[in-house]
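Per-record layout

source: Methylophilus flavus
name: DUF1318 domain-containing protein
length: 136
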Amino acid sequence: MKTGQLVGGMSMVLIIIAGVLYWQNLSEDPSDTLPSALAQTINQCDLIAGKAAAGLPEALPFQKLEKRARQSRVLDRCMQDRGYQQNPAWVTKANARANEIANAQNISQDEAYETLRRQAMLKDGVADTSYWRPKK
């Protein structure tokens, strides 16, 4: 009898959890969960870039750099093919930020800028601060 009570109690807990999740899902605004066109394009291009570099070896440090460079290049070309380009306003802000990072971390400004660029390429932000903008 104890096993039956335990199973009955567990199923009741699962039913309650399912009900809470159902009501929570109903209360969410569907427009909040839908990604923007830019976010969808970034996701698609990131997938393509990952596949393009999947076969490259990563045993040595320079091979890891080559793989990241290939992914970055493919992502950039894919985004351009889909009607986006680099935002000049982002470049201006990133150059200033890269200089600060380079001084703080004792690395080259180019390395700091490239790190910022690779991170920003995968983010969907506000039009003024986003890495990508629609081609004109």
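summary: The first strand starts at residue 84 and ends at 86. The chain has two domains: 2-26, 36-134.
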